[in-house]
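Protein Entry — a single chain follows
Fields — amino acid sequence, structure tokens
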Amino acid sequence: MATVTTTFITVNGMLVQETRGGVETYYIPDPLGSLVECRNSSGAKTYSAEYWPYGELQTSTGTNPSLWGFVGLSGYLTDSPTMLYVRARYLTTNFARWLTVDPLWPNQMAFQYCRTYPVGATDSTGLIPILVVACAACLPCLGHFIAACKDSPNFWQCVYDIWQELPLWVRLLCAAGCSGCIALIVSLLAAAAPIIIPILLRPRPDPIVPGPCSARYLQEVICTAVAAATCINLPVHSQGYLRCTQDVFEICMFDAGYPPIISII
């Protein structure tokens, strides 16, 4: 059997191109990093896709030559139609949750994906969700400055010189995007401060991660089934269904003696 060599090209951690057996394919991402189009070396579209919020493939045309799909260009690898490998663990797109507990639990939610905000956040490590859409307008500006000035002996002077050479409309766009991103980060930190400061200051025992046979794990399995049965009449991909299952799950766990785990992004 002949061996097919595949070479991938990345830019700032984002997959942009593959060469498989001499055939070049260019990836087109959405703001989250999902593969929404493939184009050949002539620029013709060979594949397109749309996804439900939690990663299930909604529609597609053509043939995807790779295993990259939902947030794939940022590292989510398609293992099966409803299972994505994301470095630390697997994401089940049909259940909109992680398959296993977060290694950073209890500082992060055990199974919840991206704080139920999949259209604006990603978790390319499988550990901590990161808001990407809110700062999308700022990233090209920062990337341009870093790429142009990374080898300069005076980084900030280089950034200032480039800033002065930019057209006014580009400066306004960068300023608006980055200020909005900074404001969002500050607001998140301010909202989280009353929660995170006591957590950081109190003595921390060794974390007890629920194993496959622990009482908490078994209770989570039970509460997941209860939530799915309770909300069965709602559309599976609707926001109402996700909110219903989350609320029922948390109430079920609380009634069983497991209070909700408080965490921040």
